[in-house]
Design goal:
Layout lengths: L18 H28 L18 E7 L5 E7 L7 E5 L10 H9 L4 E4 L19 H14 L5 E6 L1 H13 L5 E5 L5 H9 L6 H16 L22 E6 L7 H10 L4 E6 L7 H4 L1 H17 L1 H7 L8
Helix pairs in contact: 1-6, 3-4, 5-6
Length: 326
């Protein structure tokens, strides 16, 4: 007679975890995602993931662009394109925004060339064909501005230099201002952020509450760890007043810009309003006035260049009183 095998032991019923345990596990996973997500976002915003890429000068019908290579005081190699032609007194230095390169300025370089102005456009460190891996929102890029100004002063002695910045490029120009003093005859600053904390908040506010607050806290935490200097130093509002009171400044702001809000640019303008003007355009786009409002942008640019042209002799006279660079 065939014996029957004993039945397999049944598994004990799975004990249900207490509610506090399940909630704690969900909270842990949420904190982990928040922490890692903030770190990834901070790395993407402060580190260059790929190396320099070639930027040969393009063939343009309005002039000849020369390839320029500059060395900064801290050893970075900065690429640029120089349009040397033009008999007007002033020379224009173009400074792009974060994530862009000097390519951004080609349409505006064409416009200034048509009016007889020579110009130089550079690609900041950690952008384009320039060296560097760390992006600190224009603070270290001020050294790139100083190197470009030194180059232009050697190439175009006794001619006024006007800085034209876009977003981060505007901030870099402001950070360089204390060391530039009267070497610059005018500044056109489109959409410069007020300070780093505000800039981060603006960019995380696109998410719904409370995720925007969590994203802001995460990026702030990681940013302080990844930036080579204190985040408190990255504050254009603390440097704008270093532009001399006899040097004209033109601010351009977009009324609907959420990345750099109108009140931020107003704060900067109010610090130097005795020698500044504020041009406000109706647009939701960030730092795009040279594309979306060409007529208003060009009017502001060439008005400033006219003021700089009139200072030709005055600016030359100030060059002997240059601040010492550190």
């Amino acid at each position: 007679m065939k014996s029957e095998s004993p039945p397999a032991p049944s598994k004990p019923p799975r004990r249900k975890r207490p509610l506090w345990y399940r909630l704690a596990r969900v909270a842990f996973v949420g904190v982990l995602i928040w922490f890692l997500g903030g770190g990834i976002a901070a790395v993407l915003n402060t580190r260059r993931l790929l190396g320099p890429s070639p930027q040969p000068p393009p063939a343009v019908e309005w002039g000849t662009l020369e390839q320029v290579r500059l060395t900064t005081s801290d050893g970075q190699q900065i690429g640029g394109w120089l349009d040397r032609a033009g008999s007007r007194p002033s020379v224009v230095l173009f400074l792009h925004g974060v994530g862009d390169t000097r390519d951004y300025w080609l349409p505006v370089m064409r416009e200034v060339a048509k009016r007889g102005y020579p110009s130089l456009a550079i690609s900041f460190r950690a952008h384009g064909d320039s060296t560097g891996r760390i992006e600190d929102f224009g603070y270290s890029s001020s050294k790139d501005v100083l190197a470009a100004v030194d180059y232009l002063r050697a190439q175009f002695p006794e001619r006024p230099i006007v800085l034209v910045g876009n977003s981060m490029g505007s901030a870099a120009a402001i950070f360089a201002a204390p060391l530039l003093d009267h070497q610059i005859a005018g500044y056109l600053l489109e959409s410069p952020y007020r300070d780093l904390a505000t800039a981060v908040k603006n960019r995380t506010d696109f998410a719904p509450w409370p995720f925007n607050r969590l994203a802001y806290a995460g990026m702030t935490l990681w940013g302080r760890a990844l930036l080579p200097e204190s985040a408190d130093l990255i504050s254009p509002i603390d440097h704008i007043a270093a532009i001399p009171s006899d040097v004209p400044i033109t601010f351009i702001a977009a009324r609907g810009d959420r990345a750099c809000q109108l009140w931020e640019v107003r704060d900067l303008y109010n610090k130097v309003r005795s020698h500044a003007q504020l041009v406000i355009i109706d647009s939701p786009r960030h730092a795009a006035a040279s594309r979306t409002h060409v007529k208003e942008y060009n009017a502001a640019l060439f008005d400033l260049l006219g003021k700089a042209d009139a200072q030709e002799g005055i600016v030359t006279g100030h060059l002997g009183k240059q601040p010492r660079r550190h």
